[in-house]
Structure formats: structure tokens, C-alpha cells
Amino acid sequence: MTVTLARLAEIVGGRLVGDGSLVVTNVRRLDLAGPTEVTFAADKNRQNELTASQAGAAIVSADIECGEKPSILVDDVNEAFTKAVLHFRPKRISPQQGVSDLAIVGERVTLGKNVEIHPGATIGNDVVLGDDVTIHSGVQILPGCKIGTQTVLFPNVVLYEDTQIGARCVLHGGAVIGAYGFGYQEVGGRHKISEQLGNVEIGDDVEIGASSTIDRGTFGPTLVGEGTKIDNLVMIAHNCQIGRHNLICSQVGVAGSTITGDYVVMAGQAGIRDHVNVGQRAVIGSMSGVTHDVPDGEIMLGAPATPVREQRVKMAALAKLPEMRRQFRSLQKQVIALQQLQNAHQQPAPGEQAA
To answer: What is the enzyme's class at the highest EC level (predicted)?
Structure first.
């Protein structure tokens, strides 16, 4: 698929600068693009890379100089380049197939309009699927679940009983929603699982990454607020209440009964202990270990996590430790030498007798 640069400018809604007759064969990033390909630069920090790039043209903002290289000027570079990529590599959309004869659909299942259930999916009894829901192969939906309109479940997603998923959600492969929480009591010398009688309720416009897990509540629901985005390999334990529009990055672990406000960010591999409240718009840094409540808007770092201003002081001091260690050893030697000298002066001279 080829297109002239002038036509590509129309597609992305930008203003052409330079030769529009260039025949474009593809779009690629700065370091890979060749003479017949278009690249992009979203900010001035990429100016040198753009100058060195072999790309035939670039999609840029108005404050970036392209020299003699033809360009397309746009207000939002990322949005424009996304349109360009989709022109050359449109999304693969499988034809509508309705409910496959190779899917297993239980009793009293309510199906909305234009529902897609692919081969090998299993839908339990009393499940409700809204309009335009897509269920891919290998998905397991246990009895009593409800799924909102336009939600997509990719292959091998598992929903335990009574899970509720909102509208326009995306659950990626291997996500498990509603598994029994990790709650045990010691009875007669053995660990006996506590009853996990709650469920999980996911709000609208939530995305859950591959192989992430959200456990059901003990008696009530585990909640995830609307607009929250959860990366791959995230674990959210039972009874948690995750606020709206949170960003939870890969390998984060949130222990039971934790509550987060809206617009909280948790960076990769952060850990949150149980029964902690994390305030609105708080940020938990990568690999941090949160052991106590976090106020609104606070940035936490380290393990145990403390406000970032405190961690910076600690990190600065830690960086000085090797030099401080060398200084300490030098001072130790000086003290020892002074002690030896003092001891030598205190000893009586040879032949002296005590009075």
C-alpha cells in the first residue's frame, strides 16, 4: 500500500511543507525509517535524531525544524502518527460471526444485540451479555456474571461467578477476575480457607492487562472504578476499592482491603500493604513499598515508602557513604596513631625510678 505525502497529509489532518509528490511506502520510527518512509518527532529533544534520520519525510509539530526534509505539520503528533500507522496497517477485524456453534452457552443466558461468542468459549448459566460484546476463544464465564455493552474479553480470560464488568471494558488474555481471596484461618493445625462470598465489580472503560488478577471480596465486592487502566501481571487482592482513572503499572501488588482515591498512579513493581488508604492523585514510585496511609497528591518512593523529598535526602546521603567510609577509616588510623604516641610519652624513660 502506497500513498503520496500530500494525500497522507490529508489523512492525518496536517499541513504539508515541501514536496508532496513523494511516494510513501510505510511509516516507521526515527532510527529505522528509510527514504520512502515517514517518521515522526513529538518534541524538540528529538531534533538531532530527526536530522540524522534517513526518513523521506516527517510528521512534526510546528516548533521542530526539518530543514530540506518534507514534513507534515500537526497540532498533536502522536494522534497524527497513529492515523498514519492505521492507514498502512489497519486493525485486523474478524468478520461478525454471532454465537459460534462451537461455543458452550448455558441456560437462561441473556444476549444483547450483535454479541460475538467465538469457538471454544464457555458461558455459564444466568449470564448477561450487553450489546456488541465480544467473547474470544477460550474465555470461561462462570454463572451469574454480567458484562456491559461493547466490552471485549480476549482469549483465556476467566470470570468467576457473579463478576460484573462495565461497558467498553477490555480484558486481555489470561486475566482472572473474581478468584477466591487469599484468606486463611488456622484450624486444628491446618490452614483452612475463609469463605469468599463476595464478588468483583468493574466500572466502565476499564482495561485489564494480560495475566492480571483481581480477587473477589470476602463478603462484599472488590471494586475497580471507571476509567482505571491496569497493566499486565498486576495482582489486586480481596476487598480492595480501586478508585476512578487509576494507572496501575506492571507487577504491582495491592494487598487486601486497600482503598485508593481517583487518579492514583502506581509505577512498576510497587507494593501496597493491606488496609492502607492511598489519597487522590497520589503517585507511588517504582519498586516502592507502601506501609501506611498516603495523603492526597503525595509522591512516595522507596521501601518502606516515604515522601519523595525525604527519599532524595536519603539517596544523596547514601551516595556519599563510600567517601564517608574512606574518611572514617583514615580518621581511625589517625586516632590509633595519636593513642600510640600518647602512650609512648606516658611511659617512664629508661633508668628512671619512681619517687
So the answer is: transferase
Residue tagged 476463544 (cell numbers): 137
Are 146 and 165 contacting, i.e. CB atoms less than 8 angstroms apart? yes
What the block records as the C-alpha cell of 81 is: 502518527
What would the pLDDT profile of 87-129 be if each residue is shown by its tens digit? Answer: 999 887 666 789 999 999 999 999 999 999 999 999 999 999 9
Provide the sign of the torsion angle of the four alpha carbons 319, 321, 326, 330, taken in this order.
positive
Strand, helix or coil at 341? helix
SS3 string, 262-323, reads CCCEECCCCEECCCCEECCCCEECCCCEECCCECCCCEEECCCCEEHHHHHHHHHHHHCHHH
Q: How far apart are the two ends of the chain, measured CA to CA in Å?
A: 111
The CA R_g of the chain, rounded to the nearest whole Å, is 31
Q: In what order do the strands lie in the sheet with 57-60?
A: 15-17, 71-73, 57-60, 37-41, 26-27
Residue 118 a catalytic site member: no
Contact (CB, 8 A) for 37 and 23: no
C-alpha cell at 314: 536519603
What is the Cα 272 distance to its own chain's centre?
15
Catalytic residue among 172, 238, 292, 345: 238
Q: Please give the domain boundaries of the chain with CATH numbers for all domains.
A: 3-88 (3.40.1390.10), 104-309 (2.160.10.10)
- Return the C-alpha torsion angle 168, 172, 178, 181, nearest 10: -140
Taking a C-beta distance cutoff of 8 angstroms, is the pair 275, 294 a contact? no
272, 266 contact by CB (below 8 A): yes
* pTM metric for this prediction: 0.83
Listing DSSP states for 189-237 in one string gives: TEEEEPP---EEEE-TT-EE-TT-EEEPPSSSEEEE-TT-EE-TT-EE-
CA distance 288 to 284: 7
List, for residues 47-91, the tens digit of each pLDDT value.
889 989 999 999 999 888 888 899 999 999 999 999 999 999 988
Q: Render the burial of 97-120: b for 16+ CB within 10 Å, e for the rest.
A: eebbeebebeeebebeeebbbbeb
Distance CA 117, CA 103 (A): 7
